[in-house]
């Protein structure tokens, strides 16, 4: 698992869209493709253009296939004390490493979107707070995991092409319906 480090990486991952939410956290994901361009393949643009400014190029590690990238955003607005922010970040990275085999090769950002009540969680490093954070993060990451492919039932008729007219039902012949012709 690689960690997001730069502001453009975080911005690109968050632009990918929200995958799941809990009352206190949101998970954003930018899917990475195997055909992501290498940094040297991108044409420079503008006077200060860096080839690593492109969304996919931000996550290219030369000589490797797409992997899971993770970043944690715990703003001061929702966790005032640094010890609380650091504790939450540690929980995010620890749980994400446990879920790594089930996550898509993508750039993920776990963002704290609401504060934990300081009256309920007095100590920043209390076991009660750690358990509450861990429970929500487990729920958040479980929603984002790759679901195993469901076996499809064998269709008796071939699948219809999109926009193709549906076949007409067969009309029973008089012999099949039990009627005799006069």
TrEMBL record:
Going by the entry's taxonomy, the superkingdom of the source organism is recorded as Bacteria
- Biased composition range(s): Low complexity: 153-165
Give the keywords, sorted.
Answer: Endonuclease, Hydrolase, Nuclease, RNA-binding, tRNA processing
Report if keyword Glycoprotein is assigned: no
Q: SUPFAM superfamilies from the xrefs?
A: Ribosomal protein S5 domain 2-like (SSF54211)
Residue ranges, annotated region (Disordered): 153-182
Designated name of the protein: Ribonuclease P protein component
């Amino acid at each position: 698992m690689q960690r997001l480090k730069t502001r453009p990486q975080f911005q690109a991952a968050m632009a990918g869209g929200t995958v799941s939410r809990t009352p206190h956290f949101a998970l954003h994901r930018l899917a990475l493709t195997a055909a992501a361009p290498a940094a040297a393949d991108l044409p420079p643009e503008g006077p200060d253009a860096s080839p690593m400014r492109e969304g996919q190029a931000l996550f290219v590690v030369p000589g490797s296939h797409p992997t899971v990238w993770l970043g944690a955003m715990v703003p001061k607005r929702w966790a005032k004390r640094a010890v609380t922010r650091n504790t939450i970040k540690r929980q995010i990275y620890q749980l994400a490493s446990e879920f790594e085999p089930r996550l898509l090769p993508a750039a993920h950002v776990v963002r704290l979107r609401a504060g934990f009540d300081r009256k309920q969680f007095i100590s920043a490093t209390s076991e009660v707070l750690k358990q509450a954070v861990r429970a929500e993060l487990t729920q958040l990451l479980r929603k984002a995991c790759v679901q195993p492919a469901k076996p499809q039932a064998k269709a008796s008729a071939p699948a219809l092409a999109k926009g193709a007219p549906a076949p007409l039902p067969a009309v029973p012949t008089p012999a099949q319906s039990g009627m005799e012709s006069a």
